[in-house]
Design brief:
Shape: elongated
Strand order of the largest sheet: 1-2
Radius of gyration: 19 Å
Oligomer: single chain
C-alpha cells in the first residue's frame, strides 16, 4: 500500500497516478529509469522548522567546533550573536551580512567529502532542540512516504532536494533507511 498516512484525496491520487504513468513501459508517458529525476523542496515538509531549520542546527554545531580550533572567533560579534541565538542580529541589513559571515565560517574551506563527514557527525550526535530526539526521528510521515514511494516504485535515476542540497541529499537517504529498519 502506498502513501498510507495520506487522506484519500485528489493530491494523493495524482501522485500515485503520475508514478504509475511514468513507470509503466506501455504508457505514452513512460520514462526510462536512467532518465528519471525526482525533485523535492525541503521547506519544512520533511523536518520541523521550529524553533529553526535543521540547517541552522548544523551551522551552530559546526561553529562550536570551529571555535575549539580558533578561540579568537569568540570575540566576533556575529559568532557571538549566532551562539546566543540572536538570529535577528544575523539577519540585519539588506544582505543579511551577519548570517553570510557565519555561513562562510562554517561552510567553506573544506572538500565535499569533509563537508559530508561533518554533516554526518552532526546528524549522528545532534537532537532536535524542541523534541529532544535525533533528527532522523522527527520527520513527517506523509513526506517520508512521498520520498520512499518514487524511490521504491520508480527506481529514480536522480533525486534532488532543494537547498541546501549537500546537507539534505545524504540525510534524506539516512532518514529513509532509518524508517525502513524500524
Amino acid at each position: 500500500m502506498v502513501l498510507m498516512s495520506w487522506n484519500e484525496s485528489p493530491v494523493k491520487q495524482a501522485i500515485i497516478s503520475f508514478v504509475e504513468k511514468v513507470t509503466s513501459s506501455g504508457s505514452s508517458d513512460y520514462v526510462p529509469p536512467a532518465m528519471r529525476v525526482a525533485v523535492f523542496d525541503n521547506d519544512g515538509t520533511l523536518w520541523p522548522e521550529n524553533p529553526w531549520p535543521f540547517q541552522v542546527d548544523y551551522t551552530l554545531f559546526k561553529l562550536k567546533s570551529i571555535i575549539q580550533e580558533k578561540p579568537a572567533l569568540r570575540n566576533d560579534p556575529m559568532v557571538k550573536a549566532a551562539l546566543e541565538g540572536n538570529f535577528g542580529k544575523l539577519l540585519e541589513g539588506p544582505h543579511h551580512n551577519g548570517l553570510l559571515h557565519v555561513l562562510v565560517l562554517t561552510h567553506t574551506d573544506m572538500t565535499i567529502e569533509e563537508f559530508s563527514d561533518s554533516v554526518e557527525k552532526w546528524f549522528d550526535s545532534s537532537q532536535h532542540p524542541r523534541f529532544k530526539r535525533p533528527f532522523s526521528q522527527v520527520t513527517y510521515q506523509p513526506m517520508q512516504e512521498v520520498l520512499i514511494h518514487p524511490m521504491e516504485a520508480v527506481v529514480v535515476g536522480t533525486m534532488i532536494i532543494a537547498i541546501p542540497y549537500v546537507i539534505t541529499r545524504g540525510l534524506v537517504n539516512r532518514v529513509i533507511m532509518y524508517k525502513k529498519k524500524a
